[in-house]
Design a protein that fits this description.
Low-confidence stretches: 5-61
Number of helices: 5
Shape: globular
Distance between the termini: 30 Å
Strand content: 25-35%
Number of strands: 15
Structural class: alpha+beta
Radius of gyration: 20 Å
Mean pLDDT: 86
Order of helices and strands: EHEEHEEHEEEEHEEHEEEE
């Protein structure tokens, strides 16, 4: 389980005066590219209309990213999405761009890192929840599950950044006060007309007061002291800064290593370990378990509890007999305080 709370002091694009930051109106108004819009506009969008202010993008060349607040990023450099539009009832097209070289999602033997696809899916769900389903920016998001399968034939790093279009269908939508409270979204990622990946995810959107009741004093915990990293080459990394595992005395068992100073994994302050850190830990544990470089082909993860910053988390791995030659399926479980945090199943090949 991973919740993301992101406070925006002001929208990135403004064509009308916005409520003062911190005011009741600012906390309640769903935001679009043109700034806050009334709740009635959100209800209209949910019924198939286009949100007020969406026309603010009509004059753009679509060579800029969407406002970083919509994808819960503090750094503009970490925003992967460039535009979106409604194509039908609960159907949308989102555009994205992957750089040829990313500071964290580094290429793997000439392939784009498949986990950048997972981050793209995460950002797409946040974007649509805020802009099309009326979820205010002060709400927390809890990801319950995420599954993704990629086609390596279309993952090759080219001579230019990869331009993607993502067809998204939202379903299982529950609403409270005209806003989405939970939803599932299924996505197809295309590059140059070819299907690059398919994904499925679900999340809930929690108001601040409810989130505070759920988390209690956990919103002000102190992270554990930083532990020593596993050797980077054993987990598919080149820098110890990017390693999220610490070795233990037990075979196929690692402690989660959380460096809250990491500029990508901890892009902004949080009160728990983000879901993308857990996915990276699962990927690194898979590589360490198999003992050779890996390229993830499929990843299925279910989040069951928050991963706390102040208590050790331990990951364990085991493999099952491969059904396809050259492929390996690894199962990763993570526990904290004797409670499950998440379970991942990753199928990989050697790049």
């Amino acid at each position: 389980m991973s919740a993301h709370t992101f406070q925006a002091h002001r929208p990135a694009l403004t064509t009308a005066p916005a409520p003062a930051a911190g005011s009741p109106a600012a906390a309640q108004a769903p935001l679009t590219a043109a700034g806050p819009r009334p709740a009635s506009a959100g209800a209209s969008a949910a019924a198939g209309g286009v949100p007020a202010g969406r026309d603010a993008y009509a004059h753009l060349s679509l060579t800029r990213t969407v406002p970083k607040e919509f994808v819960h990023r503090a750094s503009v450099a970490e925003v992967l999405l460039t535009d979106w539009q409604r194509t039908g009832e609960d159907r949308f097209t989102v555009s994205a761009q992957w750089p040829r070289g990313h500071s964290f999602f580094t290429p793997i033997a000439g392939y784009h890192d498949p986990l950048i696809a997972a981050e793209t899916i995460r950002q797409s769900g946040l974007l649509l929840a805020h802009t099309e389903y009326g979820v205010p920016l002060d709400h927390s998001f809890v990801m319950h599950d995420l599954s993704i399968a990629v086609d390596p034939a279309h993952l090759r790093v080219g001579a230019a950044p990869a331009a993607l279009t993502i067809d998204v269908t939202c379903s299982d939508i529950t609403r409270r006060r005209g806003r989405a409270a939970s939803l599932r979204y299924t996505s197809t990622l295309r590059r140059d007309g070819h299907v690059l990946a398919r994904a499925d995810a679900s999340c809930t959107c929690t108001p601040p007061a409810v989130y505070q009741r759920l988390r209690g004093n956990r919103t002000h915990t102190t992270p554990l002291p930083l532990t020593a990293p596993t050797a980077p080459q054993t987990v598919g990394r080149t820098s110890p800064t990017d390693v999220v595992l610490t070795p233990t005395a037990h075979p196929h068992t690692w402690q989660l290593r959380t460096d809250t100073r990491h500029p990508v994994l901890f892009d902004h302050p949080v009160d728990h370990i983000p879901g993308m850190v857990l996915l990276e830990a699962a990927r690194q544990a898979t590589t360490a378990h198999l003992g050779h470089p890996t390229l993830p082909l499929t990843l299925t993860t279910t989040f069951t509890n928050y991963a706390e910053l102040d208590t050790p988390c331990h990951l364990q791995t085991h493999t099952t007999t491969p059904t396809t030659p050259g492929h390996h399926t690894t199962h990763i479980t993570c526990h904290q305080n004797n409670h499950p945090v998440f379970h991942s199943t990753i199928t990989t090949t050697t790049p």
